[in-house]
Structures are given as C-alpha cells and as structure tokens.
Amino acid sequence: MRSSWKIGMLAVVTGAGVATYFTPPKAVEAASFTLTSAAFKNNAAIPAKYSFNAMGCTGENLSPPLEWKNPPAGTKSFALMAHDPDAPTGSGWWHWVVYNIPADATSLPEGAGGAGSTTLPKGATQGNTDFGKPGWGGPCPPPGSGKHHYNFTLFALKVDKIEVPPGASAAMVGFNAKANAIASAKLTGLFSRAK
Fold first, then answer.
1. Does residue 15 sit within a domain?
2. What's the whole-model pTM score?
3. Residue 185: which of 155, 145, 144 has the closest Cα?
4. C-alpha–C-alpha distance, residues 3 and 102, integer Å
5. Beta strand pairing status for 181-191 and 44-45?
6. What's the total number of domains in the chain?
7. Domain presence at residue 23
8. Which structural domain, as residue segments, surrounds residue 64?
9. Span 123-175, pLDDT tens digits
10. Distant-in-sequence, close-in-space partners of 128: CB < 8 Å, separation ≥ 6
11. Residue 11: inside a domain, yes or no?
12. What's the rounded Cα separation, in Å, for the pair 53 and 114?
C-alpha cells in the first residue's frame, strides 16, 4: 500500500514538473509609447500661464513642457500637433505644429514654442498654426463655450524629415505626419473660460 502511494505521488510531482518545464514563458510586452507633461496630467486642466495673451486671455502664452518615452524601433523623427477640436470653427483650431524633431529627442522644454525659440531640438521646425504664424498659441476659447480639449499628439515617423514647403498649413503637415507615422502618443489638456 505504501509503495503504491509513493508511486502515485511521484507521478503527480513528475507530471507537475513536466507541465511547468514545458509551459512557454510569457511574452514580454514592449513598453508603451507615451507623451506626458510636468505641467498637467492627462485629461486635467492646463494651468492659466500657458494660455494665450490676447483676445481677452491673460496668460503668458508659454508652451508647456512635454516629455516622451519608449518610441518604437525604426523611429527616425517626430512631429507634434496640438489641436482643439471644440473650437467653434467647424474644423477646430491648431495651436502648435512642430516637425522634423530628431529621433534622439525625448522632450520639449517649457517655452520651446516661442517665436525664434532657441530651445527646440536642432533641426526641428515650427509650422503655421491657426493664429496665422509659427509657434505656440495658447488656449483661449470663447467665454462660456464650455470645456475645450487640447490634444497634443506626437507622431513617431519612419522618415528623417517631412518634406513640406515653408509656410505649409497645419493640415498639410498633419497629412504628411500621419502618412509616415509608425506610432503616435496623445496627451489631452482641458481649458475653459467663464462667461
């Protein structure tokens, strides 16, 4: 009786060991491509200092600091597009366009979107926004129009440069960015003005 009990236990232990030995290891997932800001969390309010300084808004019109991690293999450059889809225009409002950001860049410091900025990564170009010129144009929605969503989308591109003419529209840059994107990361900030 004892010997048959030992044989049965040996079979159970051996079977468990074999099952464990032959279980394939779990695949390690690649870390997600992410875009963040030290100034605000995703889906949280953008501080007033980053808002526009005209049209009734009294911000400092500074572009917020942005940082990204884990771009996919094969990334050769980046393009950043900031857009408010809630602007009452029928097509939203482009607030910032930066392209030809080199592949080794991992951030844009606060204020990098200023006219004639010297803190953009070497080679990066600021495109025209719906304010009619290059550079950051901060949030300034119409009073009482509710909460607006400011979508910052960073495209990881398979090309070293986007070939667009000087003065290209945000839509043209966006078209070329999407056509050459291998991945994108998004960060959304909120901003509203009281009546």
1. no
2. 0.84
3. 155
4. 71
5. parallel
6. 1
7. no
8. 29-191
9. 999 999 999 999 999 999 999 999 999 999 999 999 999 999 988 999 999 99
10. 97, 134, 167, 168, 169, 170
11. no
12. 13
In the predicted structure, residue 6 carries a pLDDT above the cut 50: no
In tens, the pLDDT along 38-76 reads 999 999 999 999 999 999 999 999 999 999 999 999 999
Helix (H) or strand (E) holding 3: helix 2-22
b/e sequence 4-18, b meaning 16+ C-beta within 10 Å: eeeeeeeeeeeeeee
Structure tokens at 20: 């464990």
The CATH number of residue 156's host domain is: 3.90.280.10
Cross-strand partners of 190 = 45, 149
What value, to the nearest 5°, has the Cα angle with vertex 92 and ends 90 and 93?
Answer: 135
Query: Quick one: CA dihedral 110, 116, 121, 126, positive or negative?
Result: positive
pLDDT-derived band at 11, boundaries 50, 70, 90: very low
